[in-house]
Design a protein that fits this description.
Length: 209
């Protein structure tokens, strides 16, 4: 046990021990303050957009949703474990200190990056969320009337296009203008009644039924 402790506080493992402790405390603080909000994915720490490149890399590796504290914690953990195992192996083989330090740094960094890429990537996909479209997104989309008719107080339709496609919405129009199966264009949202006003659409713009 004492041998493991000695390896933890000696080079090269100690290089990863310090950031591991720091990142763990940083993540723990965020856990307590934000209620485990690890999916914020906020890499723009200075507010000036100076590290947009990091955001693109994180997005490509599917780790953007992890947030910077958790990503660095995983990187430090993978590097720390790999460095500790490598140092113990080199020590048992009687390797020189220089080989142990350099090799431990290289192996630790490589394993840390791979750990974030594999485990962090899977976790990032699970934490990634998509913001639901706002109700105003239906304006300008086509819909198909589902009720027998539509009037100024009653009517339902299914959206055929846009981010809310297949959603059922309440629609309104002058009485007698639309009947079941008609294709219409959503032109306005009425927040007071939580419904949409619809209008006729030219035949050439109607989707194929």
């Amino acid at each position: 046990m004492q041998k493991i402790v000695d390896l933890m506080v000696s080079f090269p493992t100690v290089i990863f021990t310090v950031p591991l402790i720091f990142c763990f405390l940083w993540f723990l603080l965020g856990f307590v303050v934000s209620g485990f909000d690890v999916g914020e994915g906020d890499f723009d720490v200075d507010g000036d957009g100076d590290i947009d490149g990091l955001e693109h890399v994180a997005s490509a590796l599917h780790i953007g949703a992890l947030g910077l504290p958790l990503m660095l914690l995983m990187l430090s953990l993978g590097a720390w474990i790999a460095s500790l195992v490598f140092s113990a192996g080199m020590d048992s083989l009687g390797a020189s200190a220089a080989i142990t330090v350099v090799g431990g740094l290289v192996v630790g960094l490589v394993v840390g990056v791979l750990f974030v890429r594999t485990v962090g990537g899977s976790l990032g996909r699970a934490l990634a969320t998509e913001q639901a479209p706002e109700r105003a997104a239906a304006v300008g989309c086509t819909c198909k009337v589902r009720t027998l008719e539509v009037n100024e107080k009653f009517g339902d339709a299914e959206l055929l296009s846009g981010p809310m496609r297949t959603s059922l919405i309440k629609v309104r129009a002058p009485a007698g203008m639309f009947h079941r199966g008609d294709i219409a264009l959503v032109v306005e949202l009425d927040p007071a009644t939580d419904s949409y006003w619809i209008a006729e659409i030219d035949e050439e713009f109607q989707p194929h039924r």
